[in-house]
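Table S2 (continued). Query chain:
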Amino acid sequence: MHSRRFLLLTVLLIAASSSVAFSKADTTASLFTLQVGSFPVPDLANRFILQLVKAGEHPLSATVELEGRGHWTRVFVGLFNTTDAARRYGATLVARGIIQEFLVRRADPIQALTRPRRVTDSDSPVARVISNSGLKSQATVEVEQTAFRASDDSRPPSRSHVGMPSAGNQAALSPRDLRDPLSTNLPVVQAAAFRLAPRLDTSLIPRPDPVSLAFRLVAGEALNSLGSGGARGGLWVSGDTAEGLERLRWIVGEENVELIKLDADGRVKLDKRLLAKAAGLREARVEDPLRAVDYISSNEGLLLLVEVTQGRYRYLLHMGRQAPTSGRSAETLGSINLDNNIDSRINPYRKNGRKLDSELPPQGFDSLIGLNPIARWFNLSTNCWVQSGQIVFHEIAEAYAKLELGLDYLDHGLRSGAHAIALEREQRLKSQRPGADIVMTAGSNRLLRTEAEIRLFYAEAAAGISQR
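Corresponding output:
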């Protein structure tokens, strides 16, 4: 009898040692987590986290600073031993409609310590205990008792149900009796059927291509919505289309010049296939849309063109000395930027507070950006020429702020105006391209409207140098 007890104690010590070793190895192993969202505003992140909690998840969040984009709050779900397990669980959340997309990331040590729940491919340890058909050790009994106290039933099971059966009742104890105390109370046992979900072939679920989905994430609900006169939004180029196309390609940068194309009617198109290649999307992955968004957001010029070409408003970029308006053609000495919104510089001085027809964009458009293709801007603050593409970038950014953000041209109190927003975006573009020597439009600029004025400027500059 003593030898049998000694043998039983030895087995329990070995099992306990193995459990401790496994626990240590598990905590030091590489862990992975799912990034299920990233928000520029903390309130949006908090609302998303609340939705995840209501869905039964245990999310964590972390705030990071992205160069040129400010602070973003990232939301994470789950801890996983392998990337495959993380992807399967992420696909399950997508299929359930809890999230739309996710990224698999390596979990940092703080997440591993604070995360209250680890997600694995198999059921919980309690569920594995229930499936055993043999007798249980004392460690197994403690697991069952703890799980039972966590269930709705406040009364613990009898010792004969969870412990070593006695000789008197061993014959009467059936396998069903062993399962009853836990299987009727623990919700994890009922959720065991959910194990089939990660095995579904998620590639069969219809979904848009990653670049189209990235456009939707950037443009938001504005994508494919209707603008002026019930027509789709976008950006069109008229007049000297070759000059306009060249300036738009400068905006997106040398590495993206082939992305910009014009339809037969002058509408600006972005080549999705080339954009996917530039973003490094070489195979179908669930996280590809977020990778495409990261690539677009890292280029302020590309981001602006995605916003206006995929938005709900209709923009017309006209390159010429005469620009079409709602009333008549207007002379473009340097640039004009017209829309249908109220402008504090114009409306108060017009009859009935309304703009003239010559101060409105042509029919069918929400915004007119007219540029004199010959005109040049010389920045007096830096004594440098402003790039022609930079002028177009500023005017489009200003038009987008007036329409999509509903801003006036000028600042009002603490609220920035469209002009100030355009200058901020110029600064971000400049910081993203340190080797391009971009000259901003901030400060005073001398406008040279004709080729004669430009030649005279060079002559004056040369004369000034010779007199020194």
